[in-house]
Design goal:
about 220 residues, 4 helices, about 15% helix, five-stranded mixed beta sheet, alpha+beta, 15 strands, binds zinc ion, Fumarylacetoacetate hydrolase, domain 2
């Protein structure tokens, strides 16, 4: 398999870090408590796909949910990165969908098992083109909106994150050495829901500065 690349940066994707429950309203809608430190999981590289991708509902699941998320691309290596320096390690900002087989995840949660099987199916991590000139963009004021068949289902802003982007970079880099090509899916705002065959999902970053369209089959 060709190593997938980050659109706009043209560097290979390395690790796909994902943050769970980073918006209080989303934690509530799934009946979860608000975490005291970031919840981190990984997706496999085979989950990466791009704008205009087609995503299949796998035979193992009867309930695949969309989770629209702001995605940060790391472009420099670092360990123990300070929050004040975090922006210097970002090479791009985009949007993605953390597709989740909610039925498989619910069973895993009950048993205390990892979420990998629920989160890692092929094409379960579509990503948009990335904004690479974001020096004038405020990391704490990124707007994200998801449309399902033309209807707005999710609308969030990075200002509502429990753990803002610089804090996520610090937290991750205190545990893992970050490298160019690492992606961070920063968590989803409220309004997640199931997809059906034939659905068209569209996500806008900052009202269309970047967008991502995915079809469900
Ligand atoms: Zn998510």
């Amino acid at each position: 398999m060709q190593q997938p690349k980050i659109p706009g940066l043209d560097i290979p994707v390395r690790n796909i870090y994902c943050i769970g429950r980073n918006y209080a309203q989303h934690a509530k809608e799934l009946g979860n408590s608000v975490p005291s430190e970031p919840i981190v999981f990984l997706k496999p590289l085979g989950a990466i796909c791009y704008d205009q991708a087609t995503v299949s509902i796998p035979p193992q699941s009867e309930s695949v949910h969309f989770e629209a998320e702001i995605v940060v691309a790391i472009s420099a290596s670092g360990k123990n990165i300070l929050q004040a320096d975090a922006k210097n390690f970002i090479g791009g900002i985009g949007v993605g969908i953390d597709f989740t087989a909610r039925d498989i995840q619910s069973r895993a949660k009950k048993k205390g098992h990892p979420w990998t099987l629920a989160k890692g199916f092929e094409n379960f991590a579509p990503i948009s083109d990335f904004i690479t000139d974001f020096k004038s963009i405020a990391l704490n004021d990124l707007d994200i909106k998801l449309f399902q068949n033309g209807f707005v289902k999710q609308h969030g802003n990075s200002s509502e994150m429990i753990f803002p982007i610089p804090q996520l970079i610090t937290f991750l880099s205190e545990r893992f050495r970050l490298h160019p090509g690492d992606l961070i899916f920063t968590g989803t705002p409220e309004g997640v829901g199931p997809v059906n065959q034939g659905d068209k999902l569209e996500i806008l970053l900052n009202n269309g500065q970047k967008s991502l369209t995915v079809n469900i089959e």
